[in-house]
Each structure stands twice: as structure tokens, then as C-alpha cells.
Design a protein that fits this description.
InterPro entries: WCX_dom. Pfam families: WCX. This is Transcriptional regulator. By secondary structure, the protein is an alpha+beta fold. The protein is 38% helix and 21% strand. The chain has eight helices and twelve strands. The strands form four sheets. A four-stranded antiparallel beta sheet has the order 10-11-9-12. Strand 1 and strand 2 form a beta hairpin. The chain is elongated.
Length: 319
């Protein structure tokens, strides 16, 4: 076999190792089995596969690839040093994405993008100023650990528990069922369905039983149980509201909204929305002031009305 052909095979073998480890961590036995299949598929001998793997990974480390391995632990690709050639537009797009992530509190992920693209952020300033004002940097060690553990639990789709500290400092154990991570108004939440939560207006399962817990207030994530989620879709509530005044020409931009009726004279538009969290809905509707009127359900319309009345009373006290 010529040296040129042999070098090509070594390169293909090294690239296959990187491809496999980029998908997930692998034990030495798992990696050797997959690489043996790869070699056999290309009519190459898989003899002495263990030594081939050890030698090749050592060379990859010398080239700058951070591959972690310790006794009784799998091989794990921590950081790739594979060169990437990007156009000016691509570099600008990645710099903007890194800026957005950094401003949202994901500084580690932002730094990863800058390293991948070999970008000096000072050389690629973002043309867009953002102001998310997150409560913490989600890349801080403790918070990042909580986020990673939550992702692992969510992937298993089984119930688990967390220890949570509320805004007033009280700690409580929450039993978590159907849940997901949500970024809302610059804050990262564990959005979850709590089947034991009290329903004041609707029969369970109700969107009143959906709860948003701030990730930065989660103190501990306990292991997953063997009890699968009993619900895979969050309960929702159809809400009918009317937009008028400055919002009379409102065009739905959220996936859960649709035009129910548009006045032919352009005075108002009725929107039908399917919401899964009453508190966030009330926040959004109240900021529209007199330009929106909730029509159904009646109990929610009454709650919004009471909020406006309380605000009016507060301003009246100033007089």
C-alpha cells in the first residue's frame, strides 16, 4: 500500500472518530465497535482497533481537539478545533447571534460561537442593541448545572422534584410533571403542569395548573422517577378579546392567535387566542391599556377589569 493511500485512510479514520464523538460521548468499547464497522464497510481490517483508537485520539489532541477521557468514563469531545471558513456575512450573522445570547444571559454559549467562528467580538460589533436584562448569567456554574440537569430530566419525560426558593425566600419541594424550559421577557423559566394545583375557575386539567418557575431560583434538581408524565400537552384556554383604538388594525403574529372578526369599518378586530398561562396573558393585555377588551371567558374579563379599577384607585389616591 502506498504511503499516500495509507495517509488518506488515517485521515478518514480520524474524521470518523470526530464525527462519532460530535454526536455523543462514547465508551471505548462503543467507539471501537462503531469504528470496526466503519473499517469493514470500506474493506479495511479492524485488527488492533483499540490501539488505533488510542493513537488517533492522541494525535487529534495534539492538533488541538479537546477530547476528554479517564478510566471508566467515555470519550467526550469537549471542544473541536476544526477550521471553519466563513464569508463576511456569515461572520457578521454569528457575531450578532453571539451578542443576542450574551445579552440574554448565556455568556458561555456566546463565547462558544465566537470561538467556533474565530471572531473577535470587538472587530464585529452588532448593529442591533438589545436589552433583555436577565436576572443572572445562566452560564454561571451553579445555574448552568441546574439547566443541564433539567434538560436531562425533560428528555426522560418522567416526573421529578426540585427544591425552589420563592421571591419571599421560602423554600419548597415541587413535584414536576409535564414541563419545558421557556425564555420569556428575558427570563428563563421551568414551565410545568402541576396536576395538584388548585383550579379556581376551570375544571382540571386547566391552564390555571400551569406554573412558571424561575430557573435561577431552583436550588436542587432531584433524580428522575420511573413515573412517566400523564399529560404531554399543556392545558390551554381559548380567550376572545377585542382590539381597538391604536390596535384596531392589529395583525396576529403569534402562532396561538387568529382573527375571529374584523370590523368592516376598521374600528376594531376580534382575536381568538389559545393561551397556556393566565399570568403572562394578563401581563400582555394590561400593557395595552384601553386598546383591548377581554370578552370571554367572563371570569377572566372580570379579573382584568378589577386590575384596571385597582390601578385607577391608585392614581386617584395621588389626587
Amino acid at each position: 500500500m502506498s504511503p499516500k493511500r495509507d495517509n488518506y485512510n488515517q485521515l478518514a479514520f480520524a474524521l470518523e472518530i470526530l464525527r462519532l464523538l460530535s454526536q455523543k460521548p462514547l465508551t471505548r468499547n462503543e467507539l471501537c465497535d462503531l469504528l470496526s464497522t466503519f473499517l469493514e464497510r470500506h474493506d479495511k481490517t479492524s485488527g488492533d482497533i483499540n490501539q488505533k483508537v488510542v493513537r488517533t485520539i492522541s494525535k487529534l489532541r495534539d492538533c488541538g481537539f479537546d477530547i476528554q477521557c479517564s478510566p471508566h468514563h467515555p470519550y467526550k469531545l469537549i471542544e473541536s478545533n476544526f477550521p471553519i471558513l466563513l464569508s463576511l456575512e456569515q461572520r457578521q450573522a454569528l457575531a450578532m447571534a453571539a451578542n443576542f445570547l450574551g445579552e440574554m444571559g448565556f455568556s458561555t454559549q456566546a463565547a462558544q460561537i465566537l470561538r467556533i467562528a474565530n471572531i473577535n467580538y470587538n472587530d464585529q460589533p452588532s448593529p442591533v442593541n438589545v436589552n433583555f436584562s436577565p436576572p443572572v448569567d445562566y452560564s454561571e456554574t451553579q445555574t448552568e448545572t441546574v439547566v443541564r440537569e433539567l434538560q436531562e430530566r425533560l428528555n426522560k419525560k418522567c416526573c421529578f422534584s426540585i427544591r425552589y426558593r420563592s421571591s419571599n425566600g421560602n423554600e419548597k419541594i415541587w413535584d414536576i410533571h409535564r414541563s419545558e424550559l421557556r425564555l420569556h421577557n428575558g427570563v428563563l423559566y421551568l414551565f410545568t403542569f402541576i396536576p395538584t394545583w388548585f383550579c379556581k375557575h376551570e375544571k382540571p386539567p386547566s391552564f390555571e395548573q400551569n406554573v412558571a418557575l424561575r430557573v435561577d431560583r431552583i436550588l436542587k434538581v432531584f433524580p428522575s422517577s420511573h413515573t412517566p408524565w400523564t399529560l404531554f400537552n399543556f392545558p390551554t384556554q381559548k380567550i376572545h378579546y377585542r382590539m381597538s383604538g391604536e390596535l384596531r388594525n392589529y395583525q396576529p403574529r403569534r402562532a396561538n392567535e387568529q382573527v375571529f372578526y374584523r370590523d368592516s369599518q376598521g374600528k376594531f378586530v376580534d382575536i381568538l387566542a389559545e393561551e397556556d398561562y393566565p399570568f403572562w396573558f394578563r401581563q400582555r393585555i394590561l400593557q395595552y391599556g384601553s386598546n383591548v377588551l377581554v370578552l370571554e371567558p367572563e371570569w377572566l374579563a372580570k379579573e382584568i377589569q378589577e386590575e384596571h379599577q385597582k390601578a385607577f384607585q391608585q392614581y386617584s389616591l395621588k389626587d
